[in-house]
Amino acid sequence: MDTNLLLLLLIGAFERERIEKFKRTAGFTKFDYDQLVGFLRLFSKIVTTPHILTEVSNLAGALPDNVRESWSTHFARKAATLFEVFEESRLLMSGISFGAFGLTDAAIHSLAANTLILTEDFRLSGFLRSAKLPVFNFRELIQLSKVQMS
Fold first, then answer.
1. In whole angstroms, what is the distance from residue 64 CA to residue 34 CA?
2. What is the domain-level CATH number for residue 78?
3. Coil, strand or helix: which one is 81?
4. pLDDT in tens, 2-60
5. Alpha carbon 15 to its chain's center
């Protein structure tokens, strides 16, 4: 799962009401969070990388000071439940996706050989699809969910 979706998952589990108020997750809704949680129930583990976790940590640094300590405890507890895959940055930087997408997405690209990638990034999902790698765009899930509700 990409950085923005992991941040949504963690912020929603931390304080659901904060999803639409926190500047880093304000592009999502509580409905999006619920759909993400429901989708993830289909899988036995959530795979991440140190790069994704670092980005989540940095983005969450914009949370107000009065919740920072409780957020840090929550983040550490939730991160411990994830399956973290490490690949050296120098190897990721030598791949074809680094120049176009950066280090974190190069790590995601490297995971795609062995796991389904969940992203909201249409550019990244298009790239992975063109390489015949397993990817699902979260925005498509949201569109499908809304159509079903109509």
1. 24
2. 3.40.50
3. coil
4. 999 999 999 999 999 999 999 999 999 999 999 999 999 999 999 999 999 999 999 99
5. 17
What is d(CA 16, CA 34) in angstroms, rounded to the nearest whole number? 10
Name residue 84's beta-bridge partners.
Answer: 48
- For the stretch 71-119, pLDDT in tens is 999 999 999 999 999 999 999 999 999 999 999 999 999 999 999 999 9
Hunting for tokens 């950066």 — which residue is that?
102
Q: For 7, how many CA atoms within 13 A lie in the half-sphere containing its CB?
A: 28
Please tell me the distance from the alpha carbon of residue 52 to that of residue 108, in angstroms, as a whole number. 9
**How many domains is the chain built from?**
1
Based on the number of CB atoms within 10 Å of its own CB, is 13 exposed (0-12), middle (13-18) or buried (19 or more)? Answer: middle
